[in-house]
Structure formats: C-alpha cells, structure tokens
Amino acid sequence: MSVPATHPAHEPAIQVRGLEKSFKDLTVLRGVDIDVARGSIFALLGSNGAGKTTMVRILSTLLKADAGTARVAGFDVATQAGDVRRSISLTGQFAAVDAILTGRENLVLVARLRHLKDPGPIADDLLRRFSLAEAGGRRVATYSGGMRRRLDIAMSLIGDPPVIFLDEPTTGLDPEGRLEVWQAVRELAAGGTTVLLTTQYLEEAEQLADRIAVLHQGRIIVNGTLAELKQLLPPARVEYVEKQPTLEDVFLSVVGARTDKENR
Questions:
Q1: CA spacing 20 to 30 A to 201: which of 77, 115, 168, 207?
Q2: What's the CATH code of the domain at 225?
Q3: 32: nearest Cα among 24, 41, 46
Q4: How many domains, the chain?
Q5: What pTM was estimated for this model as a whole?
Q6: How many Cα atoms are found within 13 Å in the side-chain-facing hemisphere of 179?
Q7: How far apart are CA 187 and CA 121, in angstroms?
C-alpha cells in the first residue's frame, strides 16, 4: 500500500488537462480543462449526454481516458489509481443504500468494509450530521427520497475522503428532498470537503456552486463564478424593475450560441 504524499495547499483538489474520451464512433469528451480548488463546490452543468458522467467516471478511476491528464487529491488517475480511490468517494445518480437494513446498519456496514475501528460511533455521528438520528433505527425502505439520498451521501463520507463526486444527486427528488440534499452538500464544503457536483438543474448549480462550468458537446464552453457568468450577457434593461440575468439565461445563451456556430 502506497503512502499518500503531502501536497501543497494551493494545488487544486482536481486538475484536468486535455481530457478526451470516445466510445467507438461517438466522441464524448473533446479536450476538457478544469481546476477545482480545495474545499470548494464545483458544478459541472450540462444537458443529458453532455459527458458529465463520463468525466466523473474517469476522475474516479472507473474509466480510462483516451488522451489528456487528470489529478485528484494530488494523484494521477492513470498511474496512481489506488491513491485516488483512497482519497475520494463517489455518489451516483441513484441512492446505493440497502432498503432492508436500517439507516444505522447501512453506515456500520460500510465502516466495517473500510476496516474502521468503532463503526457504531462513526455511524451515530453521521446520523446526527445529516439529521437522521431519529430515523437511524428504521428500515431504509420507510425513508423518503431525500432521506435516502442524505444517507447515501453520509455513507460516502465514511473514512473522511477529501474529495467527493456527486453525480446528479437530486435526480428524481421532490422539492423538499432537493433542499435537504442541498443543505447536506453545503455542510460538506463547510467542513473542508471538496465537492464536484454534476447536474442538469440550473437552480442547483446557482444555489450551491462556488464555480460553474458548462459542458456542451464534450467541451467546456464557459467556466467561472456565477457573477462572472452573468457578465457574459448584456447589462440588464431598466424598465419598471431591473431584471438581473439568471444562470438559466446564461446557459441558454452560451449553449444556443455555440450550437448556432456548429450548425453553420
């Protein structure tokens, strides 16, 4: 087992350069570059089929890139895959919880699989952190969608990984469940965890992210803070009230403009 090296605090938690991936004749990623600062929430925004999940799978060592480089927590995903896996956690689009077990039993099981000492106290602490303490003794089959998702995220934090990937974490949730997950994600970042969040929900990126990148047809077409992205549009017109551009305005503008160019 290799020992993780000490990396400079200023080094990005995630660094991607020229990432490319194709599946037979379908090109999914066409030279992606991003940096994700440590302890930040970075939203990768794009429509279905834009390449978001493919990128997460490469960064989490589940898929090999055709070209380019990627480093996560200071480790190269191609040559130091074991170190990357020990430094991350991945939560997919659907909650990976056992509905037969209780919430606490799910957490204890994962802690044991990670060979951690005292799995019970670890589970109890996470149940408190994610406002699931009262439901911890109930079977997960009785949980709402938002509760299952919060439990899923809690399970992914066992072992204190510095980087977590959330691939469309609120897909299929009702508004209340989405708000519950949003709060859980904010608390992750407040505790120093780096979060890379993929989503097709514009409001989700707007509410959570420190930086937002729009992935369109395999390329990053814009990347910046919400304020920086809003500056891509003309200043607001003043009529009776001033209407500031939303992230939805920015997304539709940049994706539409790029599509128009590609269709000429």
A1: 77
A2: 3.40.50.300
A3: 46
A4: 1
A5: 0.81
A6: 3
A7: 20
Is the C-alpha dihedral spanning 153, 157, 161, 162 positive or negative?
positive
In a domain, 47, yes or no: yes
Note down the domain range covering 20: 14-233+241-263
Residue 149 falls within a domain, yes or no?
Answer: yes
What is the distance between the alpha carbons of residues 178 and 176, in angstroms, rounded to a whole number? 5
Is the residue at 5 inside a domain? no
Q: What is the pLDDT along the chain (264 residues), one digit of tens a residue?
A: 334 444 556 789 999 999 999 999 999 999 999 999 999 999 999 988 899 999 999 999 999 999 999 999 999 999 999 999 999 999 877 668 999 999 999 999 999 998 999 999 999 999 998 889 999 999 999 999 889 988 998 998 898 899 999 998 888 788 888 888 888 889 889 989 999 999 988 899 999 999 999 999 999 999 999 999 988 877 766 566 667 788 878 887 888 766 565 555
Burial class, 175, CB count within 10 angstroms (exposed 0-12 / middle 13-18 / buried 19+): exposed
Task: Report CA 177 to chain centroid distance, whole Å.
Answer: 17
